[in-house]
Amino acid sequence: MTLRRLGPSDAEALQRLRIEAFRLEPHAFRYAPEDEAAIRPAEWAARLERDVVLGVFIGQELAGAAGLTVFEGAKVRHKALLWGMYLRAAHRSSGVADELMAALLAQAREKAEIVTLTVIDQNARAKRFYQRWGFETYGVERRAVKLEDGAYLDEALMARPLT
Predict the structure, then answer these.
(1) Is residue 64 within 8 Å of residue 100, measured between CB atoms?
(2) CATH number, domain at 113?
(3) What percent of the chain has pLDDT over 70?
């Protein structure tokens, strides 16, 4: 396993991984595969220049990733948003997700005082993982996501202070 920051040349591999995540785990993310497919690779390349996005490689294969965006603006630049955490099922429960989270929080400590995230409230496994890493729920957005079948999912708002 190799863990490294993704760069613009990784944009297409990251987008493929995200489309896979949204297709295989439709109840775990607020985005749909078609949302991701509509983003041009050049947009992802620019985002990879700006944000910290770490990728997990098993051999040459991108098997997981997560991003960290530091907010801009005088009053909010002390905060960072953790987003898009996904690890292929074959590599879950192996410690790889913990290594990814540890690396993201190390990056966040250099730039922010608090990390926030949203997670589908019904995704108990992900919520337990984030809680284990010190994130606490501070609110729930009801009906945050509407599925194709008309069902709704709530999103938990979580935060972890770094200082």
Answers:
(1) yes
(2) 3.40.630.30
(3) 100
